[in-house]
Each structure stands twice: as C-alpha cells, then as structure tokens.
Design a protein that fits this description.
- The structure is a single chain.
- The chain has eight helices and three strands.
- It has about 190 residues and is an alpha+beta fold.
- It has a three-stranded mixed sheet with strand order 1-2-3.
- Helix 3 crosses helix 5.
- It is globular and about 50 Å long.
- The protein starts with 13 loop residues before the first helix and ends in a 6-residue tail after the last helix.
C-alpha cells in the first residue's frame, strides 16, 4: 500500500481540514503513486465528508440565529455593500457554508478590504470583493484552506462575481503555508 509521505493540514478547523485534504488528494501532493493509495484516499474522503459537514452545521447553529440568517440572506448584497450597511459582514458570513464554523468557532472574522461594482451587458451589477481575515484566522495553520472555502461559498451567490484576497495576508503565513497556498490554494491575492 502507498504511504503518505507528508501532508499539510490542521484539524483545528474541521471545514478547512476537508479543503486541505481535497487539495492534497487531488493534487497528489505527498502521496505515493499507487492504486491502493488512491483507493484509501477516496474511501477516507467519502467517509469523513458527512461527519465534517454535520459538525460544521452544529457549530454554526451554536453561534447563529436562524431567523437572522434568513433576513441576512434575503438582503441584496450589492446594495448592502454599496450603502456601507452595518449588515455587510453578517450578510457575507450568512452566505458561507461549512467554513463559517471555523471562522465563528475560532474567533476569526471577514474584513472587506475593498470592493468594486461590475456592470454586465444585461444591466446586472455584481460585486468583486477583496477580502481580508481578522482575529484568530490571522495565525491559523488552516487559513490556506479556509480561504478557498470562503471564496467558493461567496461565489455561490450570483451577485458576487469575483473574490480575491488582500496580499498582506501572505505576510502572516509561515514560509511553508505561503508556498502551499500560492501553489495549491486556488485563490488569488492582490
């Protein structure tokens, strides 16, 4: 059976663990090239995903109010940002999936560093966001995986056309984290 030579992850934030596991597995980083190793990886991914999702949902429920989440999700996110509403960060957080559990559960937060409005041919206006993290996320070893989760969850909202991250975040990471997120993170820094 193939052996795991190295992997880079922190189980400290369950949702980031899943993302980093996906990056390591799909990129083949640190894995011996054997059929048996691939089968074991696939089996592990299939078994762990529902458990991580359940745990993330429990954690989000601990920190949020379902009625408030529905109110925030119903808001027009373009207008919320355009008006500099106090609902900006809560409305963005409400749009996050499992990665929200890591942010709220470990004292992290989103920060909108900048945004632009993009006008489209059909008259639609969408957001292009530059996001930063704050709080405990700044020094978290799982932050590279968390970034991809944030990006994917926010892009699921049709009113958000682009998510990038402030390049100042790269200074927080150790050399290996920075190398990892730039090579495997599938996110863009400005």
């Amino acid at each position: 059976m193939g052996r795991l030579r190295w992997t880079y992850f922190s189980i400290h934030a369950n949702c980031s663990f899943v993302r980093i596991t996906q990056i390591v597995i799909t990129s083949g980083a640190g894995m011996a090239d054997t059929k048996e190793g691939d089968d074991l990886e696939d089996l592990y991914r299939v078994q762990i995903a529902p458990l991580v999702d359940q745990e993330a949902k429990k954690r989000v429920e601990m920190y949020s109010n379902p009625e408030e989440n529905q109110r925030l999700l119903a808001l027009d996110i373009v207008e919320v940002l355009r008006s500099s509403s106090k609902d900006t960060i809560p409305a963005l957080m409400a749009r996050l999936g499992p990665v929200r559990a890591a942010l709220e559960g470990h004292g992290g937060a989103l920060v909108v560093h900048d945004f632009t409005l993009e006008e489209h041919e059909k008259g639609e206006t969408t957001l292009s966001l530059i996001i930063d993290l704050d709080g405990a996320c700044v020094a978290c070893g799982a932050a590279p995986g968390t970034l991809k989760g944030i990006q994917d969850d926010l892009l699921a909202d049709p009113s958000i056309s682009r998510v990038r991250f402030h390049s100042g975040m790269l200074e927080w990471f150790s050399e290996i984290q920075r190398e990892f997120v730039l090579k495997h993170g599938e996110v863009t820094f400005l």
